Prior knowledge:
A: 12 helices, globular, B: alpha/beta
Amino acid sequence: MATVAAPPRGANLIGLAKADYKGLESTLCNGCGHDSISSQIINACYELGIKPEGLVKFSGIGCSSKSPAYFMSRSFGFNALHGRMPSIATGALIANHTLQGIGVSGDGDTGSIGIGQFKHLLRRNLRMVYIVENNGVYGLTKGQFSATADVGQELKYAGRNDLLPIDLCLEAIASGCGFVARSFAGDPKQVVPLIKAALSHRGTAVLDIISPCVTFNNRDESTKSYSWGRAHDERINDFTYVASQDEITVDYEPGEVKEVTMHDGAKIVLKKLDNSHDPTDKLAALRLLEEAREKQQFITGLIYVNSQSQSLAEQQRLGEAPLSRLPEATIRPSPESLVKIIESMR
Amino acid sequence: MALAEAHAAPAAERPPVVNDFSITVATKNGSGSQTANTALLRALFKMGIPVSGKNLFPSNIQGQPTWYTIRLSRDGFVARRPRAEIVVAMNLATAIEDHTTVEPGGVFMYADEIKIPLNRADLSYYPIPAKKLATENESDPKLRAYVANMVYVGALAHLLGINLDELESALMFHFRGKRKPVDINMKVVRLAAEWAAANLAKTDPFRVERMTATDEMMMIDGNTAAALGAIYGGVTFASWYPITPATSLADALNEYLPQLRIDPETKAPTYAIIQAEDELAALGMVIGAGWAGARSMTSTSGPGISLMTEFVGLGYFAEIPAVIWDVQRMGPSTGLPTRVSQGDIIAAYWAGHGDSKHVCLLPGSVYECFEFGWRAFDLAERLQTPVFVLSDLDLGMNQWMTKPFDYPDQPMDRGKVLSAQDVDRLGGFARYKDVDGDGIGWRTLPGTDHPLAAYFTRGTGHNERAGYSERPDDWEKNMARLARKLETARRLVPRPAEDRVAGAEVALIGFGSTEPAIEEARVRLKKQGLQASYLRLRALPLADSVKDFVAAHQRVYVVEMNAEGQMCQLLRLHALEHATRLIPCNYSDGLPLTARWITEAILEKER
């Protein structure tokens, strides 16, 4: 392979520049929340020094699912079918469990057509980061309500929504997901460390990121709009992600800090805020979400984390070498073994 | 126990009928009769007699009528026969009808609690005390119903001369060498045989004799053969969802992979199997794994194929290897889940949306289930496309004798894959460029360690460099290349098996599990003065040589198990100039095809 002679200016841990993490130019609407999230994925991976060739991008169908083309062109990407990203990712990341996966889906792709695959992905606990770019509306088909739209919301084309929204974080926790966070595309300072921490999780990490649709769902009264998000964003915790090789240098006061050690040795250092939410407490996480719904609060931050869960690759007892790279001698049993089977069937 | 003296015995001086008759056992499903029936079948096989066994069963767990029919044929014909010489009635609910189906001069053996009018003077009647012997000799009430079936096994063994040692080793096979259940069952078999010796006077001419015709053979069901073929083909990832009649294929993977594919050093499995939440997810995982470079497969039946269709289209257009076993059952909709059909030909060949044509392999025997089991991966990876293997319930779930499987005679063909070194040497690559003129591009696998190795995979329009494109010329070019790829596939898939009879005006075309019925029908037709050529299709797309075969005959009967003549329609499109020579011969009642039906259907049309 080609070697890089000297690290470029602004090189990260592995000698790559930010430009090495870039994707194609976005074709989404100007100001789309999804583009902001793509930028934060680039920032997180660049800052962590993740090798693009060791990461795979997945998506389903929809505006959100176009976005993997707009970050990290040096990573393989698979734009799957509507709602079917989880199964494609499961096959690919079990065939090669040495790869890291980032999936980008939307609220329609995850909450409606893909809710079954979403929940079964979490049940299996495939190691990947699952980002929902949640804007409460179908964009590419011009503004229908999605399953995360609020009751009573009115939209220009779709009229009034009378159905209860699906809370994807609640669904995730109920399905056994060990890393559940909510954030806001307008808050990159929170999104970046969440993505970093999610990449350290050894199972599926769900990030439900409210990502305003500037064309179809950005009126001030919409809970999926920029102005609503900025005015109502209530952080449940401030936290810092500390990669395993880094020293913890956080200026939080002792006593207000909680540390969560991830499987790869990285640490999440949380500063508890007023509500004192303990994200390692599953029941507390469920209560928090339910109360926030009742009070119409837009809470963001790390809602639930359980760093001990076993990933699908571990359940499958996979060895070190990826299945996809095993040589013929390993995957075709011997002629003698066939003779034995034939003898047993005489 | 008194003899069945009340019933007229047929002439005992009839010449013996040796190794050439059928036995049908009528039971209730879930009663454990499968053990008895497959033990009988394998014991006969072990005696060197050509046999076939077919389970004709309902979609039900327990209590509904089910039949198992065994054919012994010293001439080696293994197709189902519509009626049996020996009928064993263990189910009161069907006993009256079962009684009427016995071939003239045959045998009606029945559980003695069944009271129906036994009024056929041509039959030999043998009542057997199945319940009594089972109750007296098995203390565990849960097992009594099961071992009751061993009473007819023992009685038949005595009357026909089936070797008890061979029955015992057949049970050893069935219980995978576990002594205890073998002993429990053999005890009842021996008691029943002794009871029959003491209490039944043989008045029928049927008996078995040891032969050597199966000495070199093995006996296996098609689904297990398929799983073994896949394992010797290096299957590394499998995902599936339970569905009759494909479930036992995944079961066989689950049984044999842990025996055959554990890394001896690390003790880690060299495979992964995931039971999916539905067929959509099953094929999604398979395509994900195939994209990542693993040999990956799923197994399903018709309803599963419809759920997989969107992914099949994606796999075709994104050009990802995958192997899909369709063990066909009767449709439409959920149809008759436990009845056989060849009804998915068109659905599989054209599965997808927009223009797509898929490679479909058509195994005609359990031997080919094994062979196509491994070959399918070579084709899928060479052609970078989903490959169907169209088996069916009869082939997949029933036991068939076969010559021993041959170990793959060539190394794996992993297709066109570029390494990091290749990408470096080439200075990049274009994923969908037809570099070699065969319509197949070169691919890289995720994780290939080079900055220029990655590409973006999508089902939507793309150009040669895998970039998103809605340009008309890109689309047309891509579709033209996929058409070239289909022509490459046409040259690579298994050739049809041809048997041309010089000067014959009539020919038969068939495929799949109907092979034995067609071969036997040809012999019958020949006896009637009709010599017919025969071509057995082994794959789609259809070979060019099929056109010549059609052109060489005046009337070509296409024998298939569906109501619409699906293969006949594909053949007519393929051999358009001679389309009128192709005559559909459609059979569709849910049961395996018989030679009698084919013979009569063709003679009728020839009249």
